Amino acid sequence: HVQLVESGGGSVEAGGSLTLSCAASGRTYTNWCMGWFRQAPGKEREGLATLDSSGITAYADSVKGRFTISKDNAKNVLYLQMSSLKSEDTAMYYCAAGSGGGLDPRDFGVWGQGTQVTVS
């Protein structure tokens, strides 16, 4: 049973930066794809960035150039470095693991509880 726990969310001014972390514990699979998603109130869950087992990344156009996904395999921690934050980045941010390689949340079956990011 795998558990994902996000941390690092908080409140930041527009233009600022935050780094989110996602610690994976339990049984993990080296061939999994990991990703970051977000959901704002009243909106659908949106895929932001994914990183597959080959190191290939995918980014949503809305965050490309501003967000960077990375992983520390030794620590089983997934990161999302966010910069040039905008008010529209305000949302609950989730990390997830699955077999998919794209940005579709339906391809990810294991989810963390989320961490709130508020940009004002």
Explain what you see.
- The structure is a single chain.
- The N and C termini lie far apart (37 Å).
- It is built from no helices and eleven strands.
- Strands 2, 4, 5, 6, 9, 10 and 11 form a seven-stranded mixed beta sheet that branches.
- A hairpin with a 6-residue loop joins β4 and β5.
- By secondary structure, it is an all-beta fold.
Query: Roughly what percent helix?
Result: under 10%
Mean pLDDT: 94
The biggest beta sheet reads:
7 strands, mixed
* Unreliable residue stretches: none
Amount of beta strand:
over 45%
Gyration radius, in Å: 13 Å
Helix-and-strand structural type: mainly beta
SSE string, helices as H and strands as E: EEEEEEEEEEE
Shape: globular
Give the number of helices.
Answer: 0
Q: End-to-end span in angstroms?
A: 37 Å
Number of strands: 11
Features:
120 residues, mainly beta, 7-stranded mixed sheet, 4-stranded antiparallel sheet, globular
